[in-house]
Write a structure and sequence with these properties.
By secondary structure, the chain is of the alpha+beta class. The protein has seven helices and four strands.
Length: 215
């Protein structure tokens, strides 16, 4: 019997919440360099290769197959919200990303073997309320760290800065989510509306998401 959220029946033009932990709950990011290397691989695979460049055989260019909508990297796990455009975009991207990072991590820390807790998990998101609350859940994850506060979230290793308009990153796509927060109030931007949703929402995101939340 497969583990929950591991059955791979993927649909084009659909959002998925992708996540995975370190094997045995171990940390997969030890220092800032590790976080930056992981994001460097994300950028590499989601940036189109110029036509005048010859890509190495190992390079898997999935920029036309998938968009990264939101992310958060935690010491022992990661969250990605993606919108795949083809049936294989997510599998190609996540497997390539994880394999590249494991090779880097094992070389740096002189270890062998798997780093992640089996295959990645992926939950299909089909309704707007779930989609909005998944981004909120992802962006608030760092608050589990003892040193993290709301006013530091935009500078953490997550996409919250892009959602507040503080950073503009070509391979992160918050546009569809932010378009749901367009405000008719004078002086109120979609960025501040999203910020209010994330930081001032009074209900329980866990109750809204139910089984869509990280196991």
């Amino acid at each position: 019997m497969p583990a929950r959220n591991t059955v791979k029946m993927y649909i084009p033009d659909t959002f998925y919440h992708v996540y995975n932990r370190g094997v045995e709950g171990r940390d997969i990011f030890i220092d800032d360099q590790d976080y930056k290397i992981f994001l460097g691989y994300v950028k590499r695979y989601l940036t189109k290769i110029p036509q005048n460049e010859v890509a190495p055989r190992w390079r898997s260019d999935v920029v036309d197959k998938l968009q990264l909508v939101a992310y958060c990297l935690m010491p022992n796990h990661f969250h990605l919200l993606v919108k795949q455009k083809t049936t294989d975009g997510m599998s190609i991207f996540v497997k390539t990303l994880m394999n590249s990072y494991v090779r880097y991590f094992n070389k740096k820390y002189k270890r062998i073997g798997g780093l992640f807790q089996g295959v990645f998990k992926a939950v299909q998101i089909t309704e707007e309320p779930y989609l909005l609350h998944v981004t909120r859940y992802i962006h608030l994850n760092p608050l589990d760290l003892h040193t993290m506060t709301l006013n530091k979230l935009e500078d953490y290793f997550c996409s919250y800065g892009e959602y507040l308009g503080k950073r503009h990153t070509s391979w992160i796509h918050p546009e569809e989510i932010l378009s749901m927060f367009g405000s008719k109030l004078i002086g109120t931007s979609k960025f501040s509306s999203y910020k209010d949703f994330v930081e001032k929402y009074q209900g329980s995101t866990a109750e809204v998401l139910g089984e869509l939340i990280l196991e």
